[in-house]
Specification:
- By secondary structure, the protein is α/β, with parallel strands linked by helices.
- The protein has one domain: 3-Layer(aba) Sandwich (Rossmann fold).
- The chain is 46% helix and 11% strand.
- The strands form 2 sheets. A 6-stranded parallel sheet has the order 2-3-1-4-5-6, with helices on both faces. Strands 7-8 form a two-stranded parallel ribbon.
- β4, α5 and β5 form a beta-alpha-beta unit.
- α3 packs across α9, α8 packs across α11 and α9 packs across α11.
- The longest helix has 18 residues.
- It is globular, with a radius of gyration of 19 Å.
- InterPro entries: SGNH_hydro_sf.
């Protein structure tokens, strides 16, 4: 009888860990677009009622049998430095999982303009400050760096010869920081975008050719559209839970349906996410 009670207690504690994990997303519009999706289903620490990728991730997790408690600390056009300087108090909580997304061009080595442009040192310094901040609250926290995607508009401006060149720099920056700071991992979202182009699933807006039937980028050739946001969340789901995204539904009431995605394209993006993140570790 005592053994039975112990087994039941162990099961309940395991289930609580799987169902009750708290997740915080820190970033900007590369995390909150499309902000109307799932508004009110996640806790917006700025009370702006933003859904976006955190809400898509939560929906995917629920479809996969999980129920994380998701919060977001997001502001358009901002850097990790801005979040640390202005909202450390909101971030300094005992989260189970924290996702950090830097301004899209800050981790680059190649010049990318003024303002929040190229500043690798600041990216690394404030990623480390935020990592230390959340580890002080929970030493067991799982931290992920969110590798964003290459921007077709910067290729068109002549700052890069092709998308792959910008993506190489982003991959080096995020994977290097993840290894040096010994975080749980990094999300190869930008790599997944490039893989979708290479497979003919998505078009590359910076070329005259039509590589695929849909695009992952919006009309500004900068931000993600609904397809891009869905792929981003799929990569996160795959990385955090080491689960198979191809088992997720694409029919009525699914995340794909709520984003108005073509089911066959949603399934193709699930395959990309499955392949880009191996079960035995990072790409």
């Amino acid at each position: 009888m005592n053994t039975f009670r112990f087994v039941v207690l162990a099961f309940l504690l395991s289930a609580l860990g799987a169902w009750g994990q708290s997740v915080l997303f820190v970033g900007n519009s590369f995390t909150y677009v499309p902000k109307e999706y799932g508004a009110g289903t996640v806790t917006d620490l700025h009370d702006s009622n933003i859904g976006g990728i955190p809400a898509i991730f939560k929906k995917l997790a629920q479809e996969g049998g999980k129920d994380p408690q998701v919060s977001s600390e997001l502001s358009g056009g901002k850097t990790l430095e801005w979040h640390y300087v202005n909202h450390a108090d909101k971030i300094a909580q005992p989260w189970d999982i924290v996702v950090l997304q830097e301004y899209s061009t800050r981790p680059l080595v190649s010049p990318s303009g003024g303002g929040n442009g190229t500043n690798v040192e600041a990216f690394r310094a404030y990623a480390k400050k935020l990592i230390d901040l959340v580890r002080e609250e929970n030493p067991e926290v799982d931290i992920y760096l969110y590798e964003t995607w290459a921007r077709p508009n910067l290729v068109e401006k002549g700052l890069f010869a092709k998308l792959g060149d910008m993506q190489d720099e982003l991959r080096t920056a995020y994977s290097g920081a993840a290894e040096e700071f010994e975080v749980e991992g990094w999300f190869p979202v930008g790599d997944a975008f490039m893989e979708a182009v290479d497979r003919g699933v998505s078009d590359d807006p910076s070329t005259p050719e039509s590589e695929g039937p849909i695009r992952l980028w919006g009309h500004d050739k900068y931000h993600q559209n609904n397809y891009g946001a869905y792929l981003s969340a799929l990569v996160m789901y795959r990385t955090i839970y080491q689960a198979d995204p191809r088992e997720l539904p694409v029919g009525e009431d699914s995340a794909a349906d709520g984003l108005d995605l073509k089911p066959e394209i949603a399934q193709a993006l699930q395959q990309v996410a499955y392949d880009i993140v191996p079960l035995d570790g990072q790409p």
